[in-house]
Amino acid sequence: MSDRYLDFANSGVGGWLTGALGLPRPAPLQRRAEAGAGLVGPLLLGPDGNGRLAAILGRLAGAAGQKTHAAWSPDVRYGGLVFDASNCVDAASAQGLYRFFHQAIRSVAEHGRILVIGTPPELMADVGGEAIQRGLEGFVRSLAKEARRSIAVHMLYIAPGAEGAAESTLEFLLSPRSAYVSGQPIRVGAGVAGVDQAGHKGRRVLVTGASRGIGEAITRLFVAEGAQVVALDVAGAVEGLSALKAGLGVETLALDITAPDAAESLLADALARGGYDVVIHNAGITLDRTIARMEPREWDSVMAVNLTAPLAITRTLVEGGGRRPNGRIVAVSSLSGIAGNMGQSNYALSKAAWIGAVRRLAPQLVEQGITINAVAPGFIETQMTAAIPFAIREAGRRMNSMGQGGHPADVAETIAWLADPASGGVNGQVVRVCGQSLLGA
Ligand code: NAD
């Protein structure tokens, strides 16, 4: 979908005019397609090049042909600033944050990354420690609003001892793959440990609602990463499915996930294929109307497609053995579920319900070596959002720190990180893909 304002504001005349009128000039994001999937660099590590991830970051940077720096220099444009605030226990020790970012923030390159590392607040020894660690969230959310120039800012809480499980997350957060994820806390814990495989090569992946939009982008990304994808959609979407089959060689499945026997037939199919490594619940619908005008059919259909069916499929596949070891489940929630939205009471209920489902299932499934997470996209440029009336669409696009809508690929990248075999330490999370939307918490 085209974003004419973004194109105009970044043209010669448009840049001059928006500057003269004091209008916002969002910088187009750089994604994998423009900048590759590797680590941004060079990295400035604070405080003084230390921190509990310094060795891992040094290794990752080295592998990517990038350098890490222990001291700020006015002559370097940094791809990323990483500050380890894990040891902050009170206001005095948090002063280091101020000193580091006060000096270095202007030295971050356009499209760069800022990463603050902390200890999960509830693990701190006393109230001072818990307060300041929780405070880091406010700090990060503010930096994300100040940073501009398509710089994404991330907060990573890592449980003590889980540093080794953070590698795939660091690679995601410090790369163009996380272009539209910003200003929120992400946690890494022990999770499913002891997995040395990384990447999706050879993994069996089920994507629901795969024929178009976000589902299609997920399918394309996993195929590009070497996964064997089964693309599922309703029979009415056969054209899109056939195009995927012809273009990507994926297997396709025409199935309405709300059919009474859908979960059982998916299980039989999964067992015949030897099980799935990854299941992505992406299929979803909206039937918007204010609650007073909403028809029972509109309420019921949205709940069935977005919540009841994917929950039943999850349960049936897990209990029936349709999953392979070190499995991953990712559900597509929505910012509507976090912030609420006019005319979307049914949709917001079904999407927010996934936040609860993920929290409940994560500690249960981890015993079987499975993680479950959700992504909550904000405004994503798809056929669905292209149909929104102009004024509302413009508001949705601009009301985030990146000043633009996300692409389906941004959601796909986030899912690919969560579903990575090396991301076993990330479990029970809801990660927003919204450019730090100004709506919602
Ligand atoms: P889309 O309408 O383009 O695609 C949804 C797909 O799901 C379609 O191919 C559709 O045929 C399929 N589907 C619907 N009902 C189904 C059923 N019963 N069984 C099997 N497949 C079914 O939408 P999209 O924009 O690509 O959205 C994908 C997901 O992302 C949805 O869950 C949506 O709620 C969520 N989401 C989208 C946005 C956005 O801005 N586009 C924002 C937040 C969340």
UniProtKB/TrEMBL annotation:
Entry's transmembrane regions: none
Source organism of the structure: Brevundimonas pondensis
Name of the featured protein: 3-oxoacyl-ACP reductase
Short name of any one Pfam family annotated for the protein: adh_short_C2
Entry-linked SUPFAM superfamilies: NAD(P)-binding Rossmann-fold domains
Stretches assigned to the Ketoreductase domain: 203-378
Signal peptide per UniProt: none
InterPro entries for this protein: KR_dom, NAD(P)-bd_dom_sf, SDR, SDR_fam
Sequence similarity: Belongs to the short-chain dehydrogenases/reductases (SDR) family.
